[in-house]
């Protein structure tokens, strides 16, 4: 393997990672500001899932980015062979980065599973599949990280399996949430208008599409043996963090009504579970819980 592409890929990770982390900080801080400013009891907001997921994934992605910068300076200013240093996955800093990457993706998977659980009226059966794939991802990644740390060769199929598992979780949850919202909108007797329906679906589908494209990009680069798959892998914590914080930010912005607007007009409702729940899903879920099947 030529060493120049490896160096170029890791230098690109530093530049792009710094840009993505800046975007993540802006979106996360804005989300938290809007959420705290809309509540009179800040102590209660701290334990809100939106706040917890935003903080956890921002801190995890931030720690991953810091280690990226530390490794960059160590590789170019330390007394090591720069190219060999980046190719050695058993380095302690690289092991820590791998763990943080798994943590960030797992937090994002947990967030989308929580949204699915809420939209389906807290049904446990509907989240069995994504929970299994999420646990499978953790087990598979722990095995990969352990192998890397002990200089044991890891076949590409195990790395691809991790991406397949997280993509299955994402697509499964997004598909069921979209179907639930679509069916509810068609079934509910009182039409609530496109102002509620379209923004919810757009937010869900765009976020799913972004992460799916990122996963497919990794699969293509790995299949052709490109060393630039490092860029996709190393930026994954920042990308998944950005995708999730942008979801919450767009929801918070939807909750802001311009002066003089009709307060009776339905919008996206942020429930106590702090998920993306349109008003009509909340109503129908309440009816289901009372035995009104549809």
UniProtKB/TrEMBL annotation:
<feature type="transmembrane region" description="Helical">
    <location>
        <begin position="200"/>
        <end position="222"/>
    </location>
</feature>
<keyword id="KW-0472">Membrane</keyword>
<feature type="transmembrane region" description="Helical">
    <location>
        <begin position="126"/>
        <end position="149"/>
    </location>
</feature>
<feature type="transmembrane region" description="Helical">
    <location>
        <begin position="228"/>
        <end position="249"/>
    </location>
</feature>
<keyword id="KW-0812">Transmembrane</keyword>
<feature type="transmembrane region" description="Helical">
    <location>
        <begin position="12"/>
        <end position="34"/>
    </location>
</feature>
<protein>
    <submittedName>
        <fullName>Uncharacterized protein</fullName>
    </submittedName>
</protein>
<feature type="transmembrane region" description="Helical">
    <location>
        <begin position="161"/>
        <end position="179"/>
    </location>
</feature>
<feature type="transmembrane region" description="Helical">
    <location>
        <begin position="96"/>
        <end position="114"/>
    </location>
</feature>
<feature type="transmembrane region" description="Helical">
    <location>
        <begin position="46"/>
        <end position="76"/>
    </location>
</feature>
<keyword id="KW-1133">Transmembrane helix</keyword>
């Amino acid at each position: 393997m030529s060493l120049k592409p490896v160096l170029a890929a890791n230098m690109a990770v530093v530049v792009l990672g710094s840009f993505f982390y800046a975007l993540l900080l802006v979106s996360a801080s804005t989300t938290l500001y809007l959420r705290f400013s809309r509540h009179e009891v800040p102590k209660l907001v701290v334990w809100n899932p939106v706040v917890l997921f935003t903080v956890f994934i921002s801190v995890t992605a931030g720690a991953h980015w810091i280690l990226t910068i530390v490794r960059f300076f160590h590789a170019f200013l330390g007394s090591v062979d720069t190219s060999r240093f980046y190719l050695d996955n058993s380095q302690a800093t690289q092991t820590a980065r791998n763990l943080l990457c798994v943590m960030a993706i797992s937090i994002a998977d947990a967030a989308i599973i929580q949204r699915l659980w809420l939209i389906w009226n807290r049904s446990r059966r509907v989240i069995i599949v994504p929970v299994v794939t999420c646990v499978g991802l953790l087990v598979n990644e722990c095995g990969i990280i352990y192998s890397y740390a002990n200089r044991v060769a890891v076949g590409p199929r195990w790395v691809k399996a991790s991406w397949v598992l997280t993509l299955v979780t994402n697509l499964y949850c997004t598909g069921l949430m979209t179907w639930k919202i679509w069916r509810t909108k068609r079934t509910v007797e009182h039409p609530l208008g496109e102002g509620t329906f379209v923004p919810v679906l757009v937010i869900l589908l765009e976020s799913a599409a972004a992460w799916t494209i990122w996963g497919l990009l990794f699969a293509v680069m790995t299949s052709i043996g490109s060393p630039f798959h490092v860029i996709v892998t190393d930026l994954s914590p920042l990308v998944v963090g950005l995708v999730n914080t942008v979801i919450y930010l767009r929801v918070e912005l939807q909750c802001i009504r311009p002066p003089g607007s009709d307060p009776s007009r339905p919008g996206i409702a942020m429930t106590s579970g702090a998920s993306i729940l349109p008003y009509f899903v909340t109503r129908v879920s309440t009816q289901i819980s009372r035995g009104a099947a549809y």
